[in-house]
Amino acid sequence: MQSPCFNCICCQNSHEDQNPSSKISIIITCHREFIDAIASSIHPNSQFTNHECLPSYEELFANLQEAYPHYSQTKLADEIRANEYHHLTLSKHVCLDYTGNGLFSYYQQQKMIKSHPIHDSIASSSSAPAPPPHPPPTHDEPFFNISYKSVSLTTQLLYGGQESDTERKMTKRIMKYMNVSKHDYSMVFTANQSSAFNLLADSYPFESNPNLLTVYDHENEAVEGMIDNARRKGAKVAAAEFSWPNLRINSRKLRKTLSVKKKQGLFVFPLQSKVTGTRYSYQWMNIAQENGWHVVFDASALGPKDMETLGLSIFQPDFLICTFYKVFGENPSGFCCLFVKTPTISQLNKSITSLGIIRLVPVETKSFEHDSSSSSSSSTSSVHNQENSVSEFQEIEQVSDHDQQPKKITTLFEILKWGNKSNEKTLSTKTTSLECRGLDHADKLGLILTSSRARYLINWLINALTRLQHPHTEDIHIPLVKIYGSNIHFNRGPAVAFNVFDWKGQKIDPTLVQKLADRHNISLSCAFLKHIWFSKMYDDEKNTTLESFDDDNYKNKKKKKGKLSFGVSVISVSIGMMTNFEDLYKLWSFIARFLDADFVEKEKWRYKALNQTTIEV
């Protein structure tokens, strides 16, 4: 008997010649079989009430492979992890707090650092002091640094500017990875996601299109900054609501808001929630565009290669935002990319602020070599290098008014000062070619493999977490974990939001769980779910579930308007391309330790005995 595929794309393609009703029936059957396989991946109908009695990693991994026979086809991801991200195994660190796209691999970073020569200092003399030694790249600055550009968004889009070789190559590589054509979109590098949203809010003509509509089920700092900026410009702000308990979009209300026959504005839409993993339909972009809205597509929460899906080629948004970090599990610094559709550029205003646009500055290898030529040629070479140094210094000084790395300017000044006094040494600069092995790995794995692997892992984790139950004398087990949003679901995204509860049914503070997880070498995220809509049948749950947002500044700001923000604080887990089953088993084993009623107190006193900072409970 052939094992079920559990691959939506594969199932659809294999039955293209059948009528629509038959195809729908086949897909529904496939989804049901998937849910049944999930249940069988851990002992069926079993609950776990003691963290010391959990099945072993080897046993559960064998069960996973038996339930999902096609999981073995994703072993290429494990091979890449072993070869290119071996630091994860050596450090035993579980990274479940990364969103965005990884540019480089750890192996590539280490190779670059090792190949970077450390040059000997030049002997100083009374007439020519030695220049400061140039250090090799460190973990803080592999591959490239960033410097801020003093230019508005519209000016950058219309006229561009002189690009470095690194920027040209990076732009070309990212556009290829994102499946975006340079003829359709222009791209700008920004410092982070907040900068991208703020630049867009500064340039968007809210005076003629006075509405801003967002679709986020959680508190998003970048979006909140955009909202504040839009309000200062007189925009009317609205947000989509999410129906309890599955936290799907309240379709009736959102459709009504989009269809209002008034002057429209910006519709900010992510394809899925990076906190709950709930996925939304591409059709919302279509509905918004049909009603005259400009669409901002936030692709930051998408998985690798998700941009290859058919939807984007049909519903081309006016703006596209995505984030990139350097190395998974090692260096989360990076940048954000803001894509603007070519016909939309002319509709933007010239922004007042220029904060946020950056250029990529390659990490350079500077060496000082002795010039054995005649004194006249040495003098000419020295003058030439001096002029180049002056030009480079002025350029970086001009674009770095807001840069928070003044040590770069100091170093260049010292080199310039040294160049004025020395006529025997020359400054040569070498740049290495750009290779984005992180993006290459995503391309190698492909859309089907990465999405299938994430589907297997995230649903296994949800199934495992819901099997943890507090023991009770009356044989009534209280769940240790509550999942927010969709539970086991074929089409959910690679993220899940949950909370941990004690044996009395009281929620344990998510930040406390996060800190304890960090001490067990597991990185988690905390988030605040909001814009939740409760129907009348869930009034009782509404009263016991909602809490006010704890950020004092945000709360005080809302108090002035007579309105508080209510929602649910949660723990969030995000599965990446390099996440494996062992990572999730370690997380499950850690969460299971909360079944011990004294676990938190034990941790508190253990760290106090070690003279560490304790966590107040």
The gist of it:
The protein contains 21 helices and 24 strands.
Short key terms for the protein model shown above:
617 residues, Aspartate Aminotransferase, domain 2, Aspartate Aminotransferase, domain 1, 4 domains, 18% strand, 8-stranded mixed β-sheet, alpha/beta
Q: Give the number of helices.
A: 21
Main pleated-sheet profile? 8 strands, mixed
Rg, nearest Å: 27 Å
CATH topology of the largest domain: Aspartate Aminotransferase, domain 1
Spans where pLDDT lies below 50 across 5 or more residues: 8-16, 118-140, 365-431, 551-562
Note the gap between the termini.
54 Å
Structural class: alpha/beta
* Principal-axis shape: globular
Number of domains: 4
As a percent range, the share of helical residues equals: 40-55%
Q: How many β-strand runs? A: 24
> What is the arithmetic mean of pLDDT?
80
CATH level-two architecture of the largest domain: Alpha-Beta Complex
Strand residues, percent: 15-25%
Give the quaternary arrangement of the chains. single chain
Task: Please explain how this structure is put together.
This protein folds into four domains: 34 residues; 239 residues, Aspartate Aminotransferase, domain 1; 218 residues, 3-Layer(aba) Sandwich (Aspartate Aminotransferase, domain 2), CATH 3.40.640.10; 56 residues. Helix content is 40%, strand content 18%. The chain has 21 helices and 24 strands. Strands 2, 4, 5, 6, 9, 10, 11 and 12 form an eight-stranded mixed sheet that branches. Strands 18, 19, 21, 23 and 24 form a five-stranded antiparallel sheet that branches. Helix 9 runs parallel beside helix 10 and helix 14 packs antiparallel against helix 15. About 18% of the residues have low confidence. It comes from Solanum chilense (Tomato).
